[in-house]
Amino acid sequence: MTEGAAAFTVLGSEVRAALSDRGFQSPTRTQRRALPPIAAGEHTLVVAPTGTGKTETAMLPVFDSLVRTEDEERGTYGFRALYITPLRALNRDMRERLDWWGEQLGLNVDVRHGDTTDYRRSKQANDPPDVLVTTPETVQAMLTGSKLRTGLESLAHVVVDEVHELAASKRGAQLTVALERLQELAGPFQRVGLSATVGDPEAVGAFLTGGRGCAIRQVDVGSDLDVSVVEPAVEDGDERLASELVTDATVASHVRTILDLVEKHESTLIFVNTRQTAEALGSRFKELDAGIGVHHGSLSKEARIDVEDRFKAGELDGLLCTSSMELGIDVGRIDHVVQYQSPREVARLLQRVGRAGHRRDEVSSGTVVTTRADDTFEALAIARRARDGEVERANIHEGSLDVVANQVPGIAMDAEEISIAALHELFTRAYPFRDLSEEDLRAVVSELKGNRVVWFDEAVDTVETTGGTWQYVYANLSMIPDEETYDVEDVASGQQVGTLDERFVVNFASAGEVFVQRGEMWRIVDVDDDESTVKVSPVSDPAGEVPSWVGQEIPVPEAVAREVGSMRDVATPQFEREAPRTAVAREFANRYPADEATLGSALAQVENHVEADAPTPTGERIVVEGRGNTFVVNAPFGHKTNATLGRVLSSLLGQRAGSTVGLDTDPYRIELEVPSGVSLGEVRELLETTDPEHVEAIVELSLKRSDALKFRLSQVAAKFGALKRWEGSGVSGDRLLAALSDTPIYDEAVREVFHEDLAVEAAADVLRSVRDGDCEVLVHGDRTPIGTDGRSAGKELLSPENADASVIETVKERIRNDRVILFCVHCQDWKQKTKVRRVRDQPDCPECGSTRIAALNPWDEESVAAVRAAEKDEEQEHKTERAYQAAGLVQSHGKRAVIALAARGVGPTNAARVINKLREDEQAFYRDLLAQEREYARTQSFW
Q1: What would the 3-class secondary structure string for 426-466 be?
Q2: From CA 203, how far away is CA 434, in angstroms rounded?
Q3: Angle CA(901)–CA(524)–CA(643) in degrees, nearest 5?
């Protein structure tokens, strides 16, 4: 045994023999640090990146504990260990590995989740496996079955995978209560958590154990991190590549840079932040036949498995992915990670780049490819903070009242009758609910009683089940919100572009709004709630549009945004002294991991700002600028703080002006669309005079008018069993808000908005620093380079400049494959249904030879009948006239008329208008048809 393998000596002989069979020569650093406390039975939190052997780190001591049980006692137990993972689709590689260990050691390992068959479930209840791999929601279901509860009484070990992810969600809060319910059944058991790098491992350890004490075993990733930031410059050949990829030279330079990095390494993961970026960038690689696969959560399971296997086998040089690859999917050894655009968070960068090199305890190698100044500064700050171990906290959900409401009925079923005191004691053992008051618990139980979910006997202070308890529990096993999905349909092609979740549609979607999906910009034409469809049309000139919404953005933390402000603050006086940009870049290169060209490109933003004689926004200086009705508050405080400050400003300005104030925020700016008469000085005055103690009240008041609160209110109400009061009545958000405003349901909905989207205390701190003179507010009466850079922040850079060309081609292909009815209005005997592409240049009737052939929609048999009818009513006369007009167009213009008449909503009058433009350019002809189709889609609801 090698010296490094000494950590394996804490394991018994059976497990050590299996290690040799498995090819384990020496433990990883993670295993060396964490095996001893886990083998000693301590509660342990293992903090390390994916790919460092965390699963075996946790499970080898667990397997060892199970096999050391006396042979005659084996098989007399129920479940001895649970491995709980938040992944909805259980990791097949992890399952295969655990199965192998089980077979080697004579232990039964099985899986239970939503797709497990009834036969398998029954078998597990009657003959529990030694180790069960399952999900948080399935644990909830298991706690309701009598046989399963008996099997759980033998529980000795619980391993929770991706515990950092659970800590930041209500799923995790629910699980902490479930762990306490398990302890009621089984008595104390060992808890082991597997986590990515977090800034507060002690808090995550307390989350896991309920504050019972926890050995923290953390692998320092920053010291073994080799990350560089590169903003590609356009080089010779990028123009040619741009024309080949139907994009601009800047985007072509990004594609070339990534391909160069892939070529320099054996196996490369390429992370992007959104699925639409993955699709758009992936399409470029596909056009170039670059040997790079695409992997994200919207793809089918079969497609994901196929690309994983091909990458692992070396058939692909690179794998383009979203957060789907942050988790422990085994795709073989990775020697480099590319992050396209800023990863937004330190923890995310560590988790992603940490996938490279760790199988051999090597340095993790990665490159962040950035796209503009804000992106570069942000990535530099994140890379520096990652190297120095300055990681974000886990953002634990504290005191979620809907989780309390969700768990009370299940606990009542466990005990049949339980006192408020016993309930309170159980909840407060779970870390997120350690501060739950009896008053809040009583309010939740009273609400559940009113909704007939449980019975609360206030005279004796006990909670009991009712006839509706069982039904509620089984309908609410999960804290994942049930959200409807809307199909996004392109009105031009009739094809599905993608999907949008209900939250987006409720909060944002209305006619005229612009958003990004599939790497392209789309304008909403109509929202059909009955059909759950959002109809859209492509934005033909992306360069002239700013999307109102760009997808679910990862929020940039305040600390990262403030460091960007500090970088500007360091550069500004040097540019004021007219120092050369190269010299400033050289100084920055001593602190930040980028070459001088990349640093110089980003610093040009600050240099231009100084040359405009504008004050530079920093963490100690807010700059209010504007022209016309668009004001920008330059404030580098991160997404959530700026969203909160923006709500305060828009609400107070709106009250003063008696008009709505438009609001958009990013980590560095708050953009306000103000009514006429509002001055920049008023914005400065509000920042200087608003009482920081009033922030929460102002924001809550503004929320009452927001769809965001109403949407969350409906979700929380469902977890309280309250929505059944209004089932079938189509209750509106306003009615729901009025009915629930003084209930714990409302309190929880507000808490959740504050927790997920806002940073009330941080915003109040900014106003305090302004009040105390630690942060100045300056006004600049024009737009500045830093202020205007935000307007391009949300654009999907991969959207081609001439996206119109691909749209026109789609319309052309769709019309060519549409069917039409050809009908001879002369003899009225011949009729044929055929595809447009099969129609001859000048169609004629095979019966009579006439060229008076009407081209009609394939469902328009009524027009044929109207022409043939001996006597006609007014409606038939109209249809007859339309058929004869169509026939006249086809007789005069041949197949071009057939094409025009086949377009959607384009009747003979509009078809004639398009044809009479005498377009020689085929693309221009189809563009005119598309314009008519869009007008029809926009106005059809009024017809």
Answers
A1: HHHHCHHHCCCCHHHHHHHHHHHHHCCCEEEECCCCEEEEC
A2: 13
A3: 170
Model confidence over 30-46: pLDDT tens digits? Answer: 899 999 999 999 999 99
- The yes-or-no verdict on residue 793 having pLDDT over 60 is no
The band of 731, judged by pLDDT with boundaries at 50, 70 and 90, is low
Q: Side by side, which strands form the sheet with 853-856?
A: 831-835, 819-824, 853-856
Helix segments in 117-247, DSSP class H: 118-126, 136-142, 146-152, 163-167, 170-186, 201-209, 238-245
Place of tokens 């923290």: 216
> What local confidence, expressed as pLDDT, does residue 703 receive?
87
Of the candidates 832, 467, 781, 514, the residue with the CA atom closest to the CA atom of residue 627? 781
E-state strands within 312-384: 318-321, 336-340, 364-369
- From the list 794, 805, 791, 793, the residue with the least C-alpha distance to 247 is 805
Q: How far is CA 791 from the centre of its chain?
A: 22
All structural domains of the chain: 3-220 (3.40.50.300), 223-387 (3.40.50.300), 401-475 (1.10.10.10), 485-544 (2.30.30), 615-792 (no CATH), 803-942 (no CATH)
**Which residues partner with 428 through β-bridges?**
none
Which pTM does this prediction carry? 0.79
Cα–Cα dist 662/639, whole Å: 17
pLDDT digits (tens, 9 = 90+) for 256-277: 999 999 999 999 999 998 776 7
Tokens of 32: 């060396």
* Closest residue by Cα to residue 161 from 81, 230, 225, 228: 81
DSSP state of 299: S
Mean pLDDT of 624-643: 94
Helix axes 803-817, 922-939, angle to 10 degrees: 80
Decide if 479 contacts 406 (C-beta within 8 A).
yes
- How far CA 449 is from CA of 102, 437, 572, in Å, comes to 46, 18, 62
Which pLDDT value is given to residue 797? 41
User: Which two three-digit tokens encode residue 674?
Assistant: 């103000």
Contact 537, 569 (CB under 8 A): no
Return the SS3 of 690.
coil
pLDDT of residue 438: 96
Whether 124 and 112 have beta carbons less than 8 Å apart is answered as yes
Q: In whole angstroms, give the CA distance from residue 525 to residue 509.
A: 10
Query: What mean pLDDT comes out for the span 43-63?
Result: 88
Kindly state the tokens that stand for 408: 């009370």
Q: What is the C-alpha to C-alpha distance for residues 353 and 49, in angstroms, rounded to an integer?
A: 9
Task: Answer for the pair 280, 795: CB distance below 8 angstroms, yes or no.
Answer: no
If phi over 0 gives left and psi between -120 and 50 gives alpha, with beta otherwise, what is residue 75? left
Q: CA torsion 373→379→383→386, rounded to 10°?
A: 140
Confidence (pLDDT) at 89: 54
Nearest Cα to 385, choosing from 346, 339, 342, 338? 346
DSSP tag of 784 = -
**Structural contact between residues 132 and 112, judged by C-beta atoms closer than 8 angstroms:** yes
The answer to whether residues 486 and 529 touch, using CB atoms and an 8 Å cutoff, is no
The length of the chain, given as a count of residues: 943
C-alpha pair distances (Å), 920 with each of 61, 212, 215, 665, 846: 77, 79, 76, 46, 30
Q: Among 603, 649, 647, 651, which residue's Cα sits nearest to residue 626?
A: 649
Burial class, 141, CB count within 10 angstroms (exposed 0-12 / middle 13-18 / buried 19+)? buried
Please enumerate in sequence order all residues whose Cβ is within 8 A of that of 493, keeping only pairs 6 or more positions apart, or say none: 810, 811, 814
Phi-psi map region of 635: left, alpha, beta (phi>0 left; psi -120 to 50 alpha): beta
Residue-wise DSSP of 825-873: TTTS--EEEEEGGGS-SS---TTT----EEEE-TT-HHHHHHHH-SS--
**Whole-angstrom distance, CA of residue 87 vs CA of residue 162:** 9
What tens digit of pLDDT does each residue of 678-692 get? 999 999 999 999 999
